[in-house]
Amino acid sequence: MTSATVARLTTGPILGAYHESRETSGLSWKDLYITPGNRTYMIGSQNGGFPDFGHHVKLEMGGLWLHPIKLLDGFWLRIANSGSEDANDRKWLTESDSFHNYPFHNEHRYTLPSLKLEVERSQFCPDDTEGFVISYTLRDTSGEPRSLSASFLARTDLSPVWFSEGKGIEDSFDEGRIDQDGGLFLAKDGGQPWHVVVGADRACSSGAVGRELFGPHWTAGKGISGELTYDDIIVPAGGETVIRFFIAGSYTSEEAALLTYKKLASSCQELWASKRERYEAIAAQTVISIPDPHLQKVFGWVKFHNDWFVRDVPEVGRGMGAGHPEYPWWFGCDNSYTLLGLLPLGGLDMAQETLELIRRTSEETNGNGRIIHELSTSGLVANPGNTQETAHFIKCVWDVFGWTGDIQFLRSMYSGVKKGLSWLLGEMDPDGDLLPEGYGIIEIEGLNVELIDSAVYTWSALRAGTQMAVLLGEHEQADEYASLAERLGDTINKELWLEKEGLYADAMASVGKVMSRIDIYIERARSMGAEGAVASMQAMKEEMQQLDPASEKPWLFKNWVINTPMETGLAPRDKAIRALDRMGTDEFTGPWGTYLSGLYQDQMMTISTGVQAVAEAQYDRMDESLRYIRLIASTFNKRLPGSISEMSPDYGCFVQAWTVYGIAWPMLTGMFGIQPEAHRRKLKLRPRLPKEWNEISVKNVSLGLGELHNVLDWSISHSESVQTYSFELKQTGWSVELDLLVTADETVMLDGVSVEPVTTAEGGSAIRIEAAGKHVITVKKRA
User: Mean pLDDT in the chain?
Assistant: First the structure.
């Protein structure tokens, strides 16, 4: 076997620029990574191992997954000098020296001094394929030609995804065999039609199967191991040889797994090239240039992260999952944030596809407009939905429609929107005060009461429903929704605003209900050492003892959701500024972002910080918004090179979908000010820059789907004497409204011709361009 037999899979210059790495010698196994794919993905340790971990499927959330099943716990390679009987000449690749992450593949690098070898392990998951490819590059450091043998051991764990027991699915012990003629290890679950096939790019000399056959590490579960050995692997002096392995699976039949295996073995180069080209297209979408190199790099990686979450299970659906490794399936709540961040990055189709999956499943499960919380890839719903999720979903539908303009999509959603609003303001509002009851994003145990996030998102949902109804010709319905929205907004701003605190309350609830839980909360805070929280709740308890248990009042628990009135723009500016100023202090903001609770002040999360960033941008506080975006970005590479953890700075899921909301949404819709109404072929550009940003641009922003599709390039340049705004729409037929901040002593030129802006209701200066194409607008001081 020569080095020319198997070609290396090359990353190329575009994706090669996205390369993050770390030394791994001595690294904890808890530092995980993902090799992403829409059908399969691999979760392992950055040090090269495959640890048992996980709480959804206990000890089994790592390894190679083909949802709705798991295929492998892991794989290991042992290398030896051919014919040697010396144990020192046989080395398992266990702990790597370094880990290298790229947008869609990873590498582990090893040094084996006793064998005078360097080894590079690289892996990727081809698109739309139920398989996985691993390449080992063996590089000689002895200066002599080499003959080596290698043994590849794969440990199966053919088992179901979390929550499959609801379908009566049980995991059995795996069974395996060696096909010597085909050079394959084949395994199946003893009771289900789940199969996996393992082989290489060359014939094996021998093979072995055993339940107690392990490589360097034992793993839990009911799996079985297959070991394939390869002799006479020739490595030229000072040169290298590549040996490649293919793993294919199926949850329906061995025949399907074998067909996939043949596809991998015969078309590996083509599959690699196809995935590389697709990721190069992701890199080319929404390309920003900003005077912050670190944030610009993080922004580039976040675009790739979006693709890591696409879960495609043919019998269930396709859409954005939530987080790796513990939440790879679909959520109502998470996606109402995630999809907004996805929109300006080119994810218009995926946003609609995800919402349709959630809508369809919610209708099948609930049938009353209630939106589900969590859908396993088994097809079973684990939680029928918290109150906030229905309102939030409706808001998200309208935001997505603004970018796609797909009227058929809106029609398909509208009946569910109406049912959802009826459910929120009917069954979930028994006292008729327009404040829906039930759990929100923050599930305060035992307090499924009238919560701020549910109320605020219901207000947003009513406003969205109003616009949908107008567009679809239901004007009486529109008037009803508009009236309800106005009443609810007034209620929130009067009843849930705490003037003394300068903050919105978390909840409206009876004194008796809170009193029944307060001792539990106090003891929990005490057990966590949160003495500040203990003192605050003790004071709350003393106040309650003087009140009528039946009376209702607003309660402040200082959870991050009290930002939602500002996030949505519901809060009047005077209230918003007071609240945001306080949220920006060290009472609510820690070293890595916004605390989940200003009482406990111990945990920060990308979503709490992201909502704060969006809230600041909502009121044109772009310096403050940038502060929070940078706090999110500051946790980049803290755990997984090339990624941002769910919990700041470095724990929880090592990559989380909704992180994109706090980065892309305030930056693209707030700072760049890109606000499309695609169904009207209308684009509003309302740039509001942080003070330190004078030169920014973005290229290749997708707007609209189908015949409405357009592409925007947009740049802004500020100097002491002139402001220049340049944009180009690649397709004709769209109108543009440019909303600038122009003073009375400034003149505006459109393509060299003086124009007079129209003052907007918000105090901006609007320049309207019909049939827009390529234009330059300048703003200068009058001579």
Answer: 96
Mean pLDDT of 427-452: 89
CATH 3.40.50.460 assigned to 13-282? no
The residues near 747 (Cβ < 8 Å, ≥ 6 apart) are 754, 779, 780, 781, 782
Residue 591 in tokens: 């070293």
Model confidence over 281-291: pLDDT tens digits? 999 999 999 99
**CA–CA gap between residue 563 and residue 133 (Å, rounded):** 45
Taking alpha carbons only, the member of 124, 471, 437 closest to residue 268 is: 124
For position 256, what pLDDT does the model report?
Answer: 98
Residues in Cβ contact with 635 at an 8 Å cutoff, skipping those fewer than 6 apart: 592, 593, 606, 644, 645, 648, 649, 650
Q: Which residues contact 132 (CB under 8 A, 6 or more apart)?
A: 35, 37, 40, 42, 64, 123, 124, 125, 246, 247, 248
CA–chain centroid gap for 372, Å, is 18
Please check whether the two domains, 13-282 and 672-781, share a CATH topology: no
Options 1.10.3720.10, 2.60.420.10, 2.30.130.10, 3.40.50.300; CATH for 672-781 is 2.60.420.10
Domain 285-506+556-669 is of which CATH architecture?
Alpha/alpha barrel (1.50)
The pLDDT, as a whole number, for residue 473 is 97
User: What local confidence, expressed as pLDDT, does residue 84 receive?
Assistant: 79
pLDDT at residue 764 above 90?
Answer: no
Taking 50 as the threshold, does the pLDDT of residue 329 lie above it? Answer: yes
Looking only at the bridges linking them, the beta strands covering 735-740 and 682-685 are: parallel
Residue by residue, what is the 3-state secondary structure of 280-296?
Answer: HHHHHCCEEECCCHHHH
The three-state secondary structure class of 689 is: coil
What is the pLDDT, as a whole number, of residue 760? 84
**d(Cα 566, Cα 564) in Å, to the nearest integer?**
5
C-alpha to C-alpha distances, 121 to 137, 156, 245, 330, 517, nearest whole angstrom? 7, 20, 11, 31, 54
Helix (H, G, I), strand (E, B) or coil at 646: coil
8 Å CB contact between 374 and 329: yes
pLDDT over 90 at 445, yes or no: no
Nearest of 741, 751, 748 to residue 782 by alpha carbon: 748
On whether the CB atoms of residues 674 and 694 are closer than 8 A, the answer is: no
For residues 339 and 706, give the distance between their C-alpha atoms in angstroms, rounded to a whole number. 19
Q: pLDDT of 331-389, one tens digit each?
A: 999 999 999 999 999 999 999 999 999 999 999 999 999 999 999 999 999 999 999 99
Percent of the chain with pLDDT over 70: 99
Predicted TM-score (pTM) above 0.85: yes
Hey, where are the domains in the chain? 13-282, 285-506+556-669, 507-555, 672-781
What is the model's pLDDT at position 744? 86
Identify the DSSP state of 370. Answer: P
- Please give the Cα distance from 85 to 31 (Å, whole number): 36
User: Can you tell me the distance from the alpha carbon of 110 to that of 98, in angstroms, rounded to the nearest whole number?
Assistant: 7
* Res 213: pLDDT: 97
pLDDT of residue 86: 76
User: Is residue 396 a contact partner of residue 355, using CB atoms and an 8 Å limit?
Assistant: yes
pLDDT of the residue at 28: 87
**Burial of 487 from C-beta contacts in 10 A (0-12 / 13-18 / 19+):** middle
